[in-house]
Design brief:
Shape: flat
Number of helices: 11
Radius of gyration: 20 Å
Distance between the termini: 41 Å
Helix content: over 70%
Largest sheet: 2 strands, antiparallel
């Protein structure tokens, strides 16, 4: 336990620093391209999300590899190359939604990407002249693509979102960073709150280390982080930020439980061992991925 905590305290800040640098470059690219966007499309913002898209395109194939290992335990074997390509296409699709000409065909191209992933998986099985496990192969490929790429699509969509009306939000790198902080500080608050006051198990058969007391402290911590981030998020007051933190942090915990269920089924402790103290890429991004569509909805409605 102490070794795991030490690794988390070592590699956690390193990953956060790397993320800060990448998002800073992302913001700089948007600033550099602001004039071009204004001349070309008449918009007020530049090209956003380049850094985030590069990050997701790099890490999602690693997550596909890890989720394939989990699925294989139950004879569900996704085609990794097809699923990774599908994730990359979904990231590019979300990135392109900020450009007015693409917005006209955004819905149809999104549908085509999903359908083509299914068809390519079927053609891949047909190329091998095999029908055995075809359903497992196709279903696993589509599920891996939608679970990783489909949910990550919302992170990209939040980043590139531009204000188009009085009730529309404007995506910034700080918006993305605040969501990640809300989710991860839920884990931190739950860990220390659970160790200090944990008495009642949350779901002992699934995640024996989690307690109701830890969950309460985690959500409260996420609310405080949301309130602290509010001044840097357009159109978000500190009260709204606290509410966002509690909701987004809570949904993130559900994402963690979802992965815990898959790992229990596969009888593994972590999805991988890439990052000491954290496990695999999937162990790091599972909560933000599930929280992303709910964050998009909250920022759109309130």
């Amino acid at each position: 336990m102490e070794s795991s905590l030490r690794n988390r305290l070592t590699f956690g800040p390193m990953m956060l620093a790397g993320l800060f640098l990448l998002l800073w470059l992302d913001e700089e690219i948007q600033r550099w391209t602001r004039g071009w966007m204004q001349r070309t499309y008449g918009g007020q913002g530049g090209v956003g999300g380049v850094g985030l898209m590069v990050l997701l395109v790099l890490i999602l194939p690693l997550a596909v590899q890890e989720i394939t290992v989990l699925f294989t335990a139950e004879r569900v074997r996704p085609y990794r190359g097809i699923a990774a390509s599908g994730c990359a296409l979904l990231m590019v699709h979300a990135f392109l939604t900020q450009f007015p000409p693409f917005q006209k065909i955004a819905a149809s191209t999104l549908a085509f990407i999903i359908v083509f992933i299914m068809l390519f998986a079927a053609l891949r099985r047909a190329w091998a002249k095999q029908t055995e496990d075809a359903i497992h192969r196709i279903a696993g490929t589509v599920l891996a693509t939608l679970y990783l790429g489909g949910l990550a699509w919302f992170l990209m969509a939040i980043r590139v979102k531009h204000s188009q009306g009085p009730h529309d939000f404007h995506g910034t790198t700080w918006t993305i960073l605040s969501i990640l902080l809300m989710v991860k500080f839920t884990d931190i608050g739950a860990y220390f709150g659970g160790r200090a006051f944990g008495r009642h198990k949350l779901i002992p058969w699934l995640s024996p280390g989690k307690t109701w007391e830890g969950l309460f402290f985690g959500l409260f911590t996420a609310g405080l982080v949301g309130a602290a981030c509010a001044p840097w998020i357009p159109h978000v007051t500190w009260i709204k930020g606290f509410f966002f933190g509690v909701v987004i942090g809570g949904i993130g915990q559900l994402g963690d439980l979802l992965e815990s269920m898959m790992k229990r089924d596969a009888e593994v402790k972590d999805s991988g061992a890439l990052v000491p103290g954290f496990g695999g890429i999937l162990d790091i991004i599972d909560s933000p991925l599930v929280a992303a569509p709910f964050a998009y909805l909250l920022f759109s409605l309130f």
